[in-house]
Known about the structure:
The complex is a heterodimer of chains A (239) and B (402). Helix content of chain A is 35%, strand content 26%. Chain A has helices at 3-8, 55-62, 85-95, 111-120, 126-139, 155-167, 185-202, 213-216, and strands spanning 11-22, 29-40, 44-48, 70-75, 78-79, 96-100, 173-177, 205-209, 221-226, 229-232. In chain A, the strands form 2 sheets. Chain A has a 6-stranded mixed beta sheet, with helices on both faces. The two termini of chain A are 32 Å apart. By secondary structure, chain B is α+β, with helices and mostly antiparallel strands. Helix content of chain B is 55%, strand content 16%. Chain B has a 6-stranded mixed β-barrel with strand order 2-3-8-5-7-6. Chain B is elongated and about 105 Å long. The two termini of chain B are 43 Å apart. The interface between A and B is medium-sized, with 27 and 26 residues.
Amino acid sequence: MDEDTNVRVPVLFELSGVSQFYGKGISMVRVLEGIDFTLDRGETCAIVGASGSGKSTLLNILGLLEQPVSGRAQFSGNDVQTASPATLAQWRNQHLGFVFQAFNLLPRLDALDNVALPLLYRNHPRQSARALALEQLSAVGLAHRAHHRAADLSGGQRQRVAIARALVGQPSLILADEPTGNLDQRSANDVIDLLLRLNDQQGVTVVMVTHDTHLAQRFARRVEVANGRLRECDEHVPV
Amino acid sequence: MCRFDSARYRTWSLRLVESLENLRAMGQRSWLALLGIVVGSASVVALLSIGRSASEETMSTFKGLGSDMLVASFPGLAGPSAPLPRTLDTRPLEEGMPGRVQTAPISQYATSIRGAGEKVDAAVVGTTPALAEVMGLSMAQGRFLSPYDGKGLFVVLGAEVASALGGTAFSPYLGQRVRIGHYQFQIIGLLAPQAHNPLLPVTPDASVFVPATSMARLSSVARIGNVIVRTAPQTDLSRAAATFESLLSRQLTNREVSVQVPRQLLDSLERQARTFSWLLAGLGGISLLVAGVGVMNVMLMSVRERRREIGVRMALGARPVDIRTMFLLEAAYLSLLGAVLGALIGCAVAVAFARVCGWPVSLSVDACALGIGSSLGVGLFFGSYPAVVAARLSPAMALRDD
């Protein structure tokens, strides 16, 4: 999958009739059932739903972290189900950025090395990876914390480091799983501002899972997952 | 091509640094896994070296004591129909053998030696002057038997016999006489203490030596019992033994002749000692195997604890091969460090053990190489399963882990 194809295809992700279930036989749990979903480039989309509704599973499928059991999933026109784990890893590395609720920074590394990690998996030289990482940390206002370990940072700072890490590879899609769940109101608003600004200024597609309907209101498109099915929410409120 | 190579170099240098940092972060657990490998490697090296020291100790007792010798004996009962001679003409034997050989026929019987009221039990050995050179006997005083002694009543005393006789007022010196049977023999030489050679039929320290031709006076039954042969260096001993057997049979018709090659006995002893070393190494191998299971345990636990980290790395673009390599390198570091440390400790233990036992210290490069190589192999083998387990994790499942 080269860069040109990426830009030419307006649809970033397309799911048709996608189902996902875990386990077998009597203990089988159906999480998603026959979902159709199209994500265009440059969109901002909030996925809302109750706990256990399957919204994180949907995000995992969009994040190429798991492959659906049935249906068809296409990322930038490429079939996800037939791709090897190594290919999926490469796509994640080059096109996706993740922001998790639990931040998921590697505790042993300092902020700078955490941010540089995706570039290292891209075979970037360490020096230039760290230079780019520092640039990204400055962009989220944390250059002065570059050499602090993740454990020494506050929740809001950690999430900003995580966002810097998601952005350092210049992804076309940012996937955020309850990114404000562990933050206070002010930090939460900062994070959402940052994500929406990225969309606005750089055209990055942003998908966020949240159960906070107020935050979801700030996204151009909202979908709700309930009982394994997907429903578009009616009102579209521009940011 | 150049770019590709430098990228590969970068990847590997990064992986090496990263795995080392991971191990450091694992702290105590790394040390535990390391300890297992150290013990395993140390026991392989130590047991192999100790086994070798033990076998060298055994071999040093026999070495030089017959590595170029043949010993002829005459199985079967001596009787009137097939009597053995009292003396043997060794010239045709020596001429018939390849290279320069020396032969010494031996007839012996046990009796008491008396001197100045002391009585000592000893073996009286009737032989020819050649025995001194054949057996490498060294003198403390005087001389050994000579061709000019004829049927003279001359005797050479072994070291133990001499000191037993010298217990009280009587001190054996050259020219003095001792009584053997009904005859007074003149002492012409005293032997220095000789190393005991269990491969030869004579114990020099506990014997006295008289000319073969004098034996007829002492015992009517003493007959040639053995012929000892020292062959030329680098002789094919089995072929020499066959030649000697046929030469001797020609002289002693109607007697069965058997020629033993002490070298063969030495070889089989050496083989046995080597088997013993390998047995010990096998024991070391078992502890290495246990160490390997320890490494697997620690690595599996580490994979389990670091599931979330694995998930994050995968989400950021680590391929399964990257994860597998990371864990394999951790196992490789542990094994390499453990193997080298263990080999050093093993060498130290082997040296200490050999010193305490008074054995020769035997440290061989191949014991160390085997110890290090097998520890590395075991560590990598047992480390590969946890690495594969880690690489096969689904990123979504790994991230979900708390």
